[in-house]
Design brief:
Elements (H helix, E strand, L loop, with lengths): L8 H18 L1 H7 L8 H18 L14 H10 L6 H19 L4 H13 L10 H8 L5 E2 L2 E9 L2 E8 L3 H9 L4
Antiparallel strand pairs: 1-2, 2-3
Length: 188
């Protein structure tokens, strides 16, 4: 892990985005390591927890037919941000934006409380990651409709209900635009 000390803060943060995503999925033990804003100091434990969690998920669902789909948290909008930017926005930063968008959306959809969404957004920001984009909901929705999570007239989103509790929500593609729009709006 010493090689990670050679990374700039921006590059390190991009990798941290995926680990924060894993913390949202795995639970408080991992997620709380990011709430200090000192991920570098806890990097060995973070990596061990991320590898163990992903290993359990892949072992349980080798072909991504169920629970493994939760690993796509933040990626539907994240991939759309990447595409809209002409891939100028790095993957980690785009995923962070996607996580923040879906967290805000989860509040408006009634999946999670405002406190959970605020914790997620605060952790992303504390770790040097963006939580907003200038791309419109329409541009993001149009880009997301080409994502691998789409199956015909439906798309599956990973929606946080709490730290350590995310739901797979299959919805008609025409619901994607309002979901993204809600996620671009500030929380009260």
């Amino acid at each position: 892990t010493d090689c990670l000390n050679t990374l700039s803060d921006e590059i390190f943060a991009c990798g941290a985005a995926e680990a924060i995503k894993t913390g949202i999925l795995e639970g408080e033990a991992l997620f709380s390591l990011f709430e200090t804003g000192k991920a570098r100091e806890n990097i060995t434990e973070i990596i061990a927890r991320c590898v163990a969690f992903k290993g359990r998920i892949v072992e349980e669902d080798e072909f991504e037919n169920g629970v493994r789909k939760t690993l796509n948290l933040g990626h539907t909008v994240g991939h759309a941000v990447e595409k809209c930017s002409g891939y100028a926005v790095p993957h980690g930063r785009a995923v962070a934006i996607g996580i923040a968008v879906i967290a805000r959306s989860a509040v408006s959809l009634g999946y999670c409380g405002e406190e959970t969404a605020k914790r997620i957004i605060t952790v992303l920001q504390m770790n040097g990651l963006p939580t907003a984009t200038d791309f419109s909901a329409k541009a993001l929705a149009d880009a997301a409709l080409n994502d691998k999570k789409r199956a015909g007239d439906a798309i599956t989103l990973v929606i946080p209900r709490g730290i350590g509790d995310c739901a797979l929500e299959k919805m008609p593609v025409d619901r994607l635009l309002p979901v993204i729009q809600a996620g671009l709006e500030d929380l009260p």
